[in-house]
Please model this.
Amino acid sequence: MQGHWVVLALCWLGQLCVAQNLRPQIANPKLATNNPTLTTIALEKPFCVFDDSLSPGSSYVVYLYAMADSASTVNSAVTDNSSKPLNTTFQDTNGGQLGPYRAALFNVPNCASPPLLADVVNVKKVSDVLKQYLFRVGDDVTCLYDPNFPGACNPPLADDTTYRFKYLLVDVVAGVVKDQTLWSDPMKTSRVKQASTIDTWPGRRSGGMIVITSILSTLMFLLVVGFLASIFFFVMAAGEASTSTETTHESQTTQQGVPRSQGSSEGVNQ
Model:
């Protein structure tokens, strides 16, 4: 990685920069913190890599090829016998397993005015800077299912799989390759964690998970307390209703007994 930056620094200073001696590089971790992912790998675009091959008045684009890593990858050709770039697709190569496929094409990065990395801290500029500086392989989840999709299809990569990448400089008018880099060093996508390997120890959980767990525990406690309280008040209310009914019954019995007693007395007096 350090050697790559030294070469690019010499290119920016106007020294000889030969694309055949360079390789595509994985994105700077300061710009792509989650890289690689399960299905994508972010690469640095080839700034100042092809400048010595550009002819005034001509039009060029950069092609990016991807291929699953194998012993023969470094010798895999991406041009035909007439120096034209291969039009192989993701489907043709079984996702790069059978050979290189064209994953993308974009304009030649402007070496004279590269993006300012200091602008990454600016929320309004960060998206534009990243688009200028980086390209994420495997970032299109819909192109495989769109029969009318224009351009190169860049579908998700396979997880836990090693890939290599190559940049080509293509003359748009002539349709031939003017220059190309070496194949990149192997780069591997992330691996899906099995359920048995996921660490559930509380000390390993994030602060957010701990807060959420605490809130849910508190709510559950309050729910149980409220439920018990409602049962308590229901029992108390039922007890009071029972006591009130018994008191009323005794009062009525007493009131009915008094007239009977008076009637008996009157009868005796008569």
Summary: The longest strand covers residues 162-171. The first helix runs from residue 2 to 12. Strands lie at 41-44, 60-68, 101-107, 134-137, 162-171, 176-180, 187-188.
